[in-house]
Structure formats: C-alpha cells, structure tokens
Write a structure and sequence with these properties.
The chain is built from eleven helices and nine strands. Strands 1, 2, 3, 4, 5, 6, 7, 8 and 9 form a nine-stranded mixed β-sheet that branches. The two termini are 33 Å apart.
Length: 273
Amino acid sequence: MKFSVLLSLYVKEQANYFKECMESVLKQSVPPDEIVVVKDGPLTEELEKVLEEYVNANPKLYKIVALAENHGLGYALAEGVKRCSYELIARMDTDDVCRNDRFELQLKEFETDPDLDICGGQIYEFEENVNNVVASRTVPLEDEEIKKYQKRRDAFNHMTVMYKKSAVLKAGNYQTCLLMEDTLLWANMIMTGAKCKNINESLVYARIGKDMYERRGGFSYFKKYKAGRKRLKNIGFIGGWNYFSSLAVQFIVALLPNKWRGWLFKRVLHKRK
C-alpha cells in the first residue's frame, strides 16, 4: 500500500531536530512513497539548507508546498492533505522521531481492516535525546472507547496518526483552530462516521521540555483552549457538562507556575516510563 508522509515546517523550528526527524522517516522498515513538506511561510537559511539537501538527494520522493506567509498549522496541514498523492497519509511533526517500524505496523492495520479510517499509537516523551525518556502518553485503543474519550481529551497522539485522505476531506479537512486543529479534526471525523483505532505500541518519540509547558500556560493559552472547546460544543460534539468541566480543569492547569505544570504533565496527565 502506497502512502504519503505529511509535515509542516516553519521558521521557529530547529534544523538539527528536523534532520533527526527526517532520518527516522527515511530509515523506516517500510519507507514512504512520498514526503509532502509544507513550508508555512519563509524559513531560516539553515532550515532551507537542510530541506534542500534532502530534496536534492531524492527529488522524486519530495513534494514541497511553499506558502508565501505563515498561516498556522491548521491551514498548512489542510493544504498539505490536498496535495498528498495517496489515500493513506502519515502525519509527522518535524521535531519528533519515529520508531523504525512505525509505518509497517500501521499499514498492517489498514490491510487487516479495509474500513479503518484513522490509526494512531502511543508515544514516549523525551528531553534532549531519545535515550532520555521522561514520560509517555497512552491513549485508548478501540473505536468505541476512542470516541467516548475524545469528548474529554484527545484520543489520538497527533504525530502518530495515519489516516485516509478521503475520510479527512469528508470531515472538512483541518481547520484553523489555534492549538486545537487536530482536536477539531478528530471530532469532525468521528461525527462523519470515521472508524478509529490506536496501536498499543509507542510509535513516536515526542520531544518535550520547559518550552512546551510554557506554551500550555497563562491566560492567553486558556482563552485559545476555551475557544477550541466552544467550537466542539457549537458543532454538537460535546455538551455543556463536558465543556464547563474541561474549562475548570484547564483554568487551574494554565495558571500554575511552569515548574508545577511540568511536574503535573509528567507525573499525572502523562505516565512516567
């Protein structure tokens, strides 16, 4: 089964992280047939150089979608999905690292169940390098459980998913929804009848650190989270109880000092390895 890998690259990302990500994609037991890289606005000279090196090494493998301005992740990924050549698309974040048989495991799930629309997996969370795993994030495995869990928290680790292009487009594709582009997509896919699954294996090493905890703190973050949850309520995916209870919890988490919020993510919200 042929498939595309979809990545969005923007100016604030680090070239060495991007290189580590690309190496993990290229060294898969089942390599991709196409890599679609969306340049979400102008990049640094260093990022452009790394990207150029990979494209020059295998120009037929890459499709570069260059956006003149930075539009944000939702818009960039929506453009990328439309440009992917194959029905199956694997998402990847440009600062994370794939397990070397990730795509092989996911392709087997789609071969086993032709009705499957989206398949993700667990993640290890690391600091500095993949040998320093500090936590993990586990998500539910089966369709019914996933759909119930999604009303409270994300039932997919975004950087692990492989999905059908047709199912994503049927759900309206990615939409602009700051910090919650994937959350809104999962809700829309579920509401349009997508069949879901997660593999009980850690498929990706996800890079974390104090910057991640800082981004998830403060009243500005809370307002974006609230706006995203309100979108879910407005489309009928969640009711009033789920909306208000999730806001109460997030309000407390967002206003914690960064050190305490990091402890909470590692020890409570995400299990330690």
